[in-house]
Specification:
Largest sheet: 9 strands, mixed
Number of strands: 11
Helix content: 25-40%
Oligomer: single chain
Distance between the termini: 45 Å
Order of helices and strands: HHHEEEEHHEEEHEHEHHEHEH
Strand order of the largest sheet: 1-2-3-5-4-8-9-10-11
Length: 367
């Protein structure tokens, strides 16, 4: 039974109803010694509490897609096939342009309309194998645009979260499609790859030999798949990356580390210190945690990266991090810190999409 399917939701609703009816019908009818009666009634109360929690969890998960499968929930999915040391550039001595084309088959995603499609990508450089969702703007299939190449924004979810979270939880395509049709927001291809690669552990979008090459998955394999299958440019000036929560940290980090691959990043309720995510893999070692701090990365860059960063959130939920990063940045790096109201949730991030994508349209160039 699928974790996100209607059958499971119907089942937990039925069990919740049973959990309410059962004590009403049997509470006074329980027989036996006092200890047996007490234990039986206690089990009925525990059953009621468990079914209530399950109903809330399944309902929220169906709506926002934190977990798409039982494997995601229990951390048993196998998405890392190899984790070799790929070096500082994350390429392992390979040249992306020399690698064979990665031609994929795409299928529609239930409940998200025909424009959101999904594929299973076997990342030949990163050693990561996982699902990637792609949404094409309304202009993509317009005959008037048939010879046009499109800019791309890579969307990274938080932890827990899936590529589907951007489309079902934040409803990014529903929010942006009318703005792209009207010309208020330039048409972007949106691509959202799997981020949960090691169960519920946050990889911090890092390459960690022997563990995972998450950086190369996002910044090399996924980018190559998009340019191999769609009318998209591989130049950094035509690519942006956006994320929320733990994905916000990843988005900013990828842009700072790879100005040759991205020209802009949007960080929604992000942070500079990876240790702010309790499940962070890179925060377990103090030296790694410090070296992967965005402020440290910016200071250690051989030259100020030619990227623009939008960092927004409440005062202690992204905004101050943006100010701190901006304080150590030098031209041509641009850091815009935006203070917004609302909590650390999907509604807050969804409300920011029009503004942030309008901004992206000014810094990510159309081919």
């Amino acid at each position: 039974m699928s974790l996100t399917g209607t059958p499971l939701f119907a089942t937990v609703i039925a069990l919740a109803v049973v959990a309410v009816v059962l004590p009403l019908a049997l509470w006074a009818r329980v027989r036996g010694p006092a200890v047996v009666r007490l234990a039986t009634r206690g089990l009925m109360l525990l059953f009621a509490q468990a079914t209530a929690i399950a109903l809330v969890f399944v309902g929220i998960n169906n709506d926002q897609n934190f977990y798409t499968s039982w494997a995601d929930l229990f951390g048993t999915g196998k998405y890392v096939t190899a984790a070799h040391d790929l070096g500082a550039d994350g390429l392992g001595g390979k040249k992306v342009e020399a690698e064979p084309k990665v031609l994929q088959e795409f299928t529609a995603v239930d409940g998200l309309g025909g424009r959101v499609r999904k594929t299973e990508l076997d990342g030949k450089i990163s050693g990561v194998k996982g699902d990637v969702m792609v949404w094409l703007p309304p202009q993509y299939d317009d005959p008037a645009w048939k010879d046009r190449t499109f800019p791309v924004v890579e969307l990274i979810p938080g932890i827990p979260g899936t590529g589907k979270s951007w489309f079902q939880g934040l409803k990014a395509h529903e929010k942006l499609e009318p703005l792209m049709k009207s010309g208020k927001v330039q048409p972007f291809i949106l691509v959202s790859p799997r981020a949960m690669l090691l169960g519920d552990t946050d990889t911090g979008c890092a390459n960690i030999p022997g563990k995972v090459n998450a950086d190369s998955w996002f910044s090399v394999d996924v980018r190559k798949m998009v340019t191999d299958n769609f009318r998209a440019s591989g130049e950094a000036r035509h690519w942006g990356v956006a994320g929320y929560s733990a994905g916000a940290y990843c988005a900013a980090k990828l842009a700072i580390a790879h100005p040759d691959r991205y020209s802009a990043a949007v960080s929604l309720s992000g942070y500079n210190d990876p240790g702010q995510e309790p499940t962070s893999l890179i925060a377990k070692d103090p030296r790694t945690r410090k070296s992967h701090n965005l402020v440290s990365l910016m200071k250690a860059a051989p030259a100020p990266p030619a990227v623009a960063l939008w960092m927004s959130g409440a005062e202690h939920d992204g905004y101050l991090s943006g100010l701190d990063l901006g304080a150590v940045s030098k031209a041509p790096t641009v850091v815009h810190a935006e203070k917004v109201g609302g909590g650390h949730n999907m509604d807050t991030w969804t409300r920011q999409l029009p503004q942030t994508f309008e901004w992206l349209g000014t810094v990510v160039k159309t081919p």
